[in-house]
Amino acid sequence: MTSYPASPVMGQMMSQPLLISTIIDFAARHFGEVEIVSRRVEGDLHRYTYRDCQGRAKRVAHALQGLGVQIGERVATLAWNGYRHMELYYGVSGSGAVLHTINPRLHPEQIAYIVNHAEDQVLFFDLTFLPLIEVVAAHCSTVKAFVLMAGHERMPEHTSIPNLLCYEELLASSSAEYVWPQFDENAAASLCYTSGTTGNPKGALYSHRSSVLHAYASAMPNGLNVSARDTVLPVVPMFHVNAWGLPYSVLLSGAKMVFPGAALDGKSLYELFEAEGVTFSAGVPTVWLGLINHAVQNDLTFSTFRRTVIGGSACPPAMMDVLMDRFGIEVVHAWGMTEMSPLGTAGVLQAKHLSLSKDAQRKILQKQGHAIFGVDMKIVDDDGVELAWDGVTYGHLLVKGPWIIASYFKDEGGDVLQDGWFPTGDVATIDGDGYLQITDRSKDVIKSGGEWIGTIDLENIAMAHPAVLQAACIGIAHPKWDERPLLLVVKRPGFDVSREDLLAFFIGKVAKFWMPDDVSFIDALPMGATGKIQKNKLREQYRGYQLPTA
Ligand code: ADP
Description:
Layout: H1 21-30, E1 35-39, E2 45-49, H2 50-66, E3 74-78, H3 83-94, E4 98-101, H4 108-118, E5 122-125, H5 130-136, E6 145-148, E7 164-166, H6 167-172, E8 188-193, E9 203-207, H7 208-219, E10 231-234, H8 241-244, H9 246-253, E11 256-259, H10 266-276, E12 280-283, H11 285-297, E13 307-310, H12 317-326, E14 330-336, E15 343-346, H13 358-366, E16 369-371, E17 376-380, E18 395-400, E19 422-430, E20 435-441, E21 446-448, E22 451-453, H14 455-463, E23 468-478, E24 482-491, H15 499-505, E25 518-521, H16 535-541
Parallel strand pairs: 1-11, 3-4, 3-5, 4-8, 5-6, 6-7, 10-11, 10-12, 12-13, 13-14, 24-25
Antiparallel strand pairs: 1-2, 8-9, 14-15, 15-16, 16-20, 17-18, 18-19, 19-20, 21-22, 23-24
Helix pairs in contact: 1-2, 1-9, 2-3, 7-9, 10-11
The structure holds adenosine-5'-diphosphate (ADP).
The site of adenosine-5'-diphosphate has 20 residues, from strand 14, strand 19 and strand 20.
């Protein structure tokens, strides 16, 4: 870690480390009565307050002590968004151990790999994942105890899981009298592995300092804009990139928290939004598909839902239009990545944009947004030379800032920075006002006749067609042009469109050489563990595909 020289005249302010435990202490003391409502795996709704959460988080810390977990050791979770997971967020990190959130959608072999790689000492899991733990437990050589996050009545009578403990019993036998330890704010607080589309997953190891700074910055009005007047429902999972930091930023803002548990279908989400008065939510585009479909099909409106952040993959303009125009919900398009804690940019308008036409404003909002303070970014060419911010020139996107990784856990992958900047693997433009637009992942970009074709644009156009539910564009090897675009389309149920009509839909919307060469209709697109289309699988599946000759 880089250290910096002291000044002969140092500031005379209190030196207080930025620790995650300070967030729950603040919330419990200053917003003690604010509620956390959770839809439980058990089926019912659970509600309690920030103050209750703090007490139980302290019990978790005590219990970890009892289990012999030392400062810096990793403690894993396999769990949905819920109050017990929140208690672990604070209890584990607050005690000085490292919270390792595991994505249950990963393949069991990958789960065992990361548990062993992280050397997890204890693994907490929701009832849903009991069968999964039965499968992987024998392969998790470092885990001393598995803890089922439920009451005694849910404990299985027979199990192959060694040393299986009950969460509620563990907490009941641990005191809530606990003083959070004080330590260096640069200590590790949590660990999240990337989904490893190529090679093994790599760990992003967040520090207390980086998590607290990210929480401050992301909550600000130009970011997620969370305040004590909000009721927040994070659809984005706590098992991946700390639910975009919401378990921290919501608490320091004093907003009410609503956790959806495992029920992420449109109907369940809609009912929870309405019953609890949710004003703000955040998630990847695929989850909004379900909620929007449910609301449209049943002709429903939202009575309190006012703003949502969409990111993780590109928000299709058609989705933004429905949310904004039909439901009156402000859409903030955000971009980030696991290696960035994750927030980098968020799309809100500036004063000078307010006099623009609705269409012109929408064009700005469709981009991935503006850097939030703490994140710097630049685009460079293949030789690393910085490119213009003109909204047209595209290049490799590099970032730096205090919540962006300097290296992966255990230095996997070696030195990842380029002159102190982290290469994101994204290709992007930045306009004169500082708005970022992601053209593609560099590995997904289609190289045609020496030019690049951005697949996100093509997919967005396709998804603006009423008969298209989802679209993915991939490059197919071509003898003359290197690669040409093939569009894969999932039709919206009850709608139809021909290949010819869909191709005609692109005319006038893109340069001629960007036009897809062909369309193939499929039943479903392969989705990865973080809700993204797995284009590597599609490329594999369509290798050797014969494009029509012009
Ligand atoms: P993983 O899928 O490995 O967990 P992340 O969740 O870290 O990866 O995803 C990061 C990547 O997701 C970014 O580098 C970018 O390619 C893509 N991404 C994130 N947000 C957006 C967005 N709003 N628009 C387009 N792509 C996005």
